[in-house]
Amino acid sequence: MFGVNGWEALVLLLLVLIVVGPDRLPEVARQVAGWLRSVRDFLQGAKESVKRELGDDVDLASLDPRQYDPRRIVRDALFEDTPSRGRGGSSPVSAPKMWEQGPAPHPGTSEAAPFDEDAT
Is residue 32 part of a domain? Predict the structure, then answer.
């Protein structure tokens, strides 16, 4: 449990018996049991509080900071298309990339703005 095998636990119990004494041992055992009970109740309350704040449908394993890999996040953001909805809104289509779009229409008209290749 705590990296203590059977023989080490026996030695610790004998050491506690010698230090505390047989007459005060029941009182110390009740006190330790009370501390353990209060720690268990505190942890249970914290767990319920987290569930209440985040909701029941949250997967706590997905919030594990050890899964955070900045290289993967940047790679996914740069090289994957983000899904968007088409005009009908029924099926996701890949978002158009900026260089695949034509020139934007000039404000107030339906024709494209003038484009000068030498200026770019």
Answer: yes
